[in-house]
Amino acid sequence: MDLFTGVGVALVTLLDDAGDVDTAATGALAADLVGRGMQAVLACGTTGEPGTLTDAERLDVIRAVRDAVPPGVPVLAGTGATSLARAAELTAAAAAAGADAVLAWPPPGCDDLVGYYAELGRVADGLPVLAYHIPWISSPGIPVSALAGLPVAGLKDSSGDPDRLLAEVAHYPGRTYVGSSALLALAGPIGGTGAILAAANAEPELCVAAFAGNAAAQRQLTDVHLALREGGVPALKRILAERRGTIPLSRPAASE
Questions:
Q1: Does any domain span residue 256?
Q2: Distance (Å, whole) CA 256 – CA 250
Q3: Catalytic residue among 117, 156, 172, 177, which?
Q4: Is position 62 within any domain?
Q5: Is 156 noted as a catalytic residue in this protein?
Q6: How far apart, in Å, do the first and last CA atoms of the chain sit?
Q7: What is the CATH number of the domain that holds 102?
Q8: How many domains does the chain have?
Q9: Per-residue pLDDT for the chain (256 aa), expressed as one digit of tens each?
């Protein structure tokens, strides 16, 4: 399956009242969002709180999402980790669970980005691998100057830096997906490939419109965007609970 253009959702992982992963509710949310315009679903990305999940739960979420959305909609899996060995393990497992592509941030301070992504590509069994620039998790992140030399299909950039986004779209020949819902009305009109967004869990239609260049839609996303900036995934889950009646629970983060 080829990668997508347009807007995809960085899916939350929903829990039940007991704090267990609710794969049925998570899959149902994914299916609803695809029906409302999402071109792809990222399972177990940073919005999916993968550090709180067991390996078995991660695979259950990936399988549930893959089963819930139409076959032509790609399901990406987050597989970034603090070591190459762990990221490779997660990548191989995600491929076996039915993911169509993987998204991986490099270990903090990684000094061999080419080798890191080459190994993930090897264990991904032919699936596309996207690099992930998210410097507050993986410092210092991925320099724009390094992108063209990486053995990846593209990049998700969640930095929220408009100067960097301009440089990526102008100078990087691979796919560029923006991860900040504040930059959609810039990213789409200048030629970005797409977006992979936490805010799309709550406002999929506005995200699609903003990426298409609708300035009014971009402004309407302000409150949700700022709520997520301030409160992270717990704030997003509270918004979803108010709108959809889902359970707004998150688990304490565990170390990889």
A1: no
A2: 17
A3: 156
A4: yes
A5: yes
A6: 29
A7: 3.20.20.70
A8: 1
A9: 679 999 999 999 999 999 999 999 999 999 999 999 999 999 999 999 999 999 999 999 999 999 999 999 999 999 999 999 999 999 999 999 999 999 999 999 999 999 999 999 999 999 999 999 999 999 999 999 999 999 999 999 999 999 999 999 999 999 999 999 999 999 999 999 999 999 999 999 999 999 999 999 999 999 999 999 999 999 999 999 999 999 999 998 764 4
Residue 101 lies in a domain: yes
Domain span including residue 144: 6-244
Active site residue 237: no
DSSP labels, 189-211: TTT--EEEESGGGT-HHHHHHHH
Q: Is 254 inside a domain boundary?
A: no
The answer to whether the beta carbons of residues 196 and 9 sit under 8 Å apart is: yes
Active-site residue identified among 116, 132, 172, 177: 132
Tell the burial category of 157 from Cβ atoms under 10 Å away from its Cβ (0-12, 13-18, 19+). Answer: buried
